[in-house]
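hiii so um. not sure if this is the right channel but i have a protein structure encoded as tokens and i wanna go backwards to a sequence. like what aa goes where. can anyone help
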């Protein structure tokens, strides 16, 4: 069951009780000033995204979250046997379907790395049921990708079984912030859990 996109920014409403419109005619004056749905989660706005980034640069904060990792199984073998355009199409579908599933459950698409994604639930939109939301997002990723992979396998002329998805979820306390000196990047670093 697809969730309807929020008409107001969930982050601004939850944190400030400020109804910033994201969609519809009421959002037009805000768009003039560059306030629109965030690319990290379209149920939040660019103001939340900017504040989130500034807070992360200024300090590191700890919060309990559920982290979802997903990657394409068999990607290395496929990338060696298919043309670049077909691999790019595969990654586009994978990223888009993962993002839609994550956003449906108010997760934050934190990273895309090669053939993998990392999503965070319970930040910046707080959810008491963040672990359940991460599990539901994982199920939705599997469903969406299974449907798309059948179509892709036909167009790529490969076996649909070669296009598997691996997903891992864990919950615990992480520190958010920019880590490193030579390359500054926003990261969620586990405090009490370590996954290999």
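sure thing!! here u go:
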């Amino acid at each position: 069951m697809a969730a309807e996109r929020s008409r107001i920014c969930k982050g601004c409403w939850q944190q400030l009780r400020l109804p910033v419109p994201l969609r519809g005619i009421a959002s037009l004056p805000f768009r003039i000033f560059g306030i629109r749905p965030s690319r990290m989660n379209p149920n939040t706005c660019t103001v939340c995204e900017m504040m989130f980034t500034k807070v992360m640069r200024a300090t590191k904060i700890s919060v309990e979250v559920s982290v979802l990792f997903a990657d394409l199984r068999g990607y290395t073998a496929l990338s060696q046997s298919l043309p670049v355009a077909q691999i790019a199409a595969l990654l586009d579908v994978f990223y888009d379907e993962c993002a839609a599933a994550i956003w449906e459950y108010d997760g934050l698409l934190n990273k895309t790395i090669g053939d993998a994604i990392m999503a965070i639930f319970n930040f910046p939109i707080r959810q008491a049921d963040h672990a359940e939301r991460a599990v539901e997002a994982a199920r939705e990723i599997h469903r969406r990708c299974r449907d798309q992979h059948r179509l892709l396998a036909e167009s790529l002329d490969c076996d649909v079984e070669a296009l598997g998805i691996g997903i891992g979820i864990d919950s615990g306390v992480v520190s958010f912030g920019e880590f490193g000196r030579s390359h500054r990047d926003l990261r969620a670093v586990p405090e009490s859990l370590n996954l290999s």
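oh and The mean pLDDT is 81.
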